[in-house]
Amino acid sequence: MIYVDNAATTFPKPKIVTDKIMECSLGYAGNPGRSGHKLAMKMDLEIYETREKICKLINGTEPLNVIFTFNATDSLNIAIKGVLEKGNHVITTSMEHNSVLRPLNQLRKDGIIDLSIVYADKQGYVEPQKIFDAVTPQTKLIVTTHMSNVFGTIVDIKSIGEFCKENNILYLVDAAQSIGVLDIDVQDMNIDLLAFPGHKALFGPMGTGALYIKEGIKVKPLRQGGTGSYSHSIDQPDLYPDSLESGTPNGVGIIALRKGIDFINEVCIDNIRNHEISLKNHFIDLLKDNDDIILYGTLDDRQGAVVSLNVKDMDSSEVSYILSDEFDIYTRPGFHCAPLAHKSLGTDELGAIRFSFGYFNTIKEVEECVNALKIIIERIKK
User: Fold this and answer.
1) Best label site of 73, 220, 291, 353, fewest CB within 10 Å?
2) CA distances (Å), 230 to each of 39, 55, 120, 233, 243, in order?
3) pLDDT, tens digit, for every residue of 208-248?
């Protein structure tokens, strides 16, 4: 089996992550903050330790401003709907996942916001100046991905963050594909809100995610309910993280997520990034001169370890099915929940086959992927 669908979720997870799931599930999975017994208190403490680990990873300033969610979609919805008000103008890009585009489009359709979408070039690169040029006096928020989930192109979030700070505009970054691989410093990059999942390059379980909120920024709750705090009142608490964390959290998953971050710290994020980029570069080098393969993206250092392609005269879903069924190579075909990204690169009718490499992939596996594609091409030529 060759798993190259790490942009969807990383697989396999490090053993220390799966071991922690079992240890917590069998040993102390009490409901955090809901009672005074030892199991609940231990769970509460370990969840806080995960907040600290995340805060340190992104150079945040306040662990209590790490809000646990169920995935990046949850984080993005909380952030977007929690800071916008009627009459606000928002700028985003064509490279966004539907987790950004759909909530923004719904707010636009409901007459709450005005929305500008800045299109990437034909390689999927977003020029920051085009974002700056779209600003109006009503611009409240700019939302961009850090790295495209379809074409791997990396956005210059530091330049955008500096512009937002200078112009008193909130900046929300979708770090679903970048956290755990690319360096993120919320202070240096002037990021006000950082949304991300736990189950991708942080190596945590599905059903985990977080939203980091810069100190001083108020995010209205998307939902209300039990928090284990201020239980004598029917009003939602007005402090982080309680105000945004109603209901029982995925405590086991959150604690296991901490072990994913421990794994990253042990291996070193630079080593993870360099390994994944070497896989991406080797893959591109082996295919770039093949006339039967169409490669998308910048194909340079502005692209992470995600490469989408098409085989000429073949449907992307058909190729992906053959790779899975005959070669045990697992990719993702289609439109990847990012329709405007495909429109930007001209694949909005074809879709594309995405190869997303991870830390546990090898050069040999990359070469086997290329050989499988060549076999498929030779077959259709006969």
Assistant:
1) 291
2) 21, 25, 47, 6, 11
3) 999 999 999 999 999 998 887 878 888 888 999 999 999 99
